[in-house]
Specification:
single chain, about 450 residues, alpha+beta, Serine Threonine Protein Phosphatase 5, Tetratricopeptide repeat, OB fold (Dihydrolipoamide Acetyltransferase, E2P), 2 domains, two-stranded antiparallel ribbon, 18 helices, 9 strands, about 55% helix
């Protein structure tokens, strides 16, 4: 069984973090309008002095084109102006700033237009050759590199890896207190940093997936969700990775997280409903029942990763535990040994065994030194007592009385209490299993039991 809302290895950044970086951080390419105003533009070859180098406008037309770009707020129109600048002045002294404006512009367009993502990556790579630590260029490579259509090239995988590691390296500097925007609180600034760190880890997870390093990808996703829990898409991607790796308890927790988390960065409601349906079925298939599923869902609603020591016991593990407990009980409890042996023989041989060995026989009748069976009372009335012997909550023995029990006897037989008995076998049913005794003896309980006429049960070697 498989559920996937993403193409394998194509995690998408948390929407909240992306929106904030595009609108709130304002770590934008430097605007040169003021410097350009001071330049004596108007003729080719005239110069503008900066603090560190000399830059030349080719002519006044280039400066005016640049000025229009800085004043244009519509990214599609700005892109057209940038392309005009590139076409007319391919060797501009301001090519590095042009790259920054390209990245800023294509970054806005790429959110809703996948066709702009590869051009954005190309411009980012061109800028990173000039400045390997440029924040925006590295950020967009990590954000949109994994979303490029088709099989990723080794070059793209390497680009994403390098940029993700660079983001992790420069995050403390970029988000230092001195860089915090006045309109932002300390908490908002830290959340912005956490969004970037999470995106970097998501990028490294994608790289590991391309390199078939499942353990590495799982570790990166876990770090990402620990840093920024508000990532429904990443929780779902992490869940699928764990599920495919057969780490079912952890995978089920992450599917629960993706389904239950409904805050900022959550998946769409219809997707969460599909994930919840998948979780419920997968949980039942793995655990053998729905017991405990609600607890997992409640935990996942408030935690992005499983708590230390989290586990869901599989149906196979439960069966093994029950089998081990059953074997120990058979070995240590002679009365139960006889009871279970009778049950097994009836289930395997049916009427043949019942008629030859049990019908009208007194059981246990002292076999192997055992005088009585012990069971837990499940229901009681004057003519009948139902017991659970193998399981205290599942009836498998019925005691039938031809003379109704007195009130004194009924006061001694309470639901939930254990009683001992021995009696003559009257009948059985195979499914659900039930062995019925007529007029049994119950030590310590006075009954008007007729004189026993049952035969001794044959002893089998």
């Amino acid at each position: 069984m498989e559920f996937c809302i993403l193409r394998a290895g194509r995690p998408i950044a948390a929407a909240a973090g992306l929106a904030f970086l595009l609108t709130g951080l304002s770590i934008a390419p430097p605007a040169l309008a003021q410097q350009a105003d001071t330049a004596q533009a108007g003729g080719q070859g005239q110069q503008q002095s900066t603090a560190q180098t000399q830059k030349n406008w080719k002519d006044r037309a280039e400066y005016e084109l640049f000025e229009n770009i800085t004043k244009t707020t519509d990214p599609q129109q700005r892109l057209q102006l940038l392309n005009t600048w590139q076409d007319k002045y391919p060797q501009s002294d301001y090519a590095d700033y042009r790259l920054k404006y390209y990245i800023n512009t294509l970054g806005q367009l790429a959110q809703n237009d996948p066709s702009q993502r590869q051009p954005l990556i190309d411009k980012c790579e061109a800028l990173l050759k000039l400045d390997p630590n440029d924040f925006y260029a590295n950020f967009y490579v990590v954000l949109y590199g994994p979303q490029i259509q088709g099989t990723p090239s080794p070059e793209l995988v390497s680009q994403v890896q390098n940029s993700a590691n660079t983001l992790l390296k420069i995050a403390d500097t970029v988000f230092s207190p001195s860089n915090k925007k006045p309109q932002m609180t300390d908490q908002q600034w830290q959340e912005a940093k956490n969004s970037v760190l999470a995106i970097a880890h998501n990028g490294l997870a994608w790289v590991d997936i391309q390199n078939k390093n499942t353990a590495g990808a799982e570790n990166e996703y876990q770090q990402s969700l620990t840093i920024n829990p508000n990532q429904g898409t990443i929780a779902a991607a992490y869940a699928k990775l764990l599920y495919d790796d057969k780490k079912f308890p952890q995978a089920l927790f992450e599917y629960a997280r993706a389904a239950e988390y409904d805050g900022q960065g959550a998946l769409p409601a219809n997707t969460r409903t599909q994930l919840l349906d998948f979780f419920n079925k997968a949980y039942k298939d793995y655990h053998g029942s729905s017991d405990g599923a609600d607890q997992v869902l409640n935990q996942a609603k408030t935690s992005a990763v499983p708590p230390q020591g989290f586990n869901i016991v599989s149906a196979a593990q439960i069966a093994n535990q029950e089998a081990e407990q059953l074997n120990q009980r058979i070995q240590n409890d002679p009365a139960f040994n006889i009871w279970y042996s009778i049950k097994q023989s009836l289930q395997q041989q049916g009427d043949e065994f019942f008629n030859s060995d049990l019908k009208d026989a007194e059981v246990p009748g002292g076999a192997k030194g055992v005088k009585y069976f012990t069971g837990t009372v499940i229901s009681v009335d004057p003519s009948k007592v139902t017991l659970g012997i193998e399981n205290p909550t599942v009836p498998d023995a019925t005691l039938v009385f031809s003379t109704p029990l007195s009130q004194e006897a009924l006061n001694s037989i309470k639901v939930g209490s254990q009683i001992q008995f021995s009696g003559v076998v009257d009948s059985y049913t195979a499914n659900p299993y039930m062995l019925t005794f007529k007029d049994p003896t119950i030590p310590g309980v006075k009954t008007t039991t007729p004189a026993k006429t049952g035969r001794r049960r044959p002893t089998r070697r």
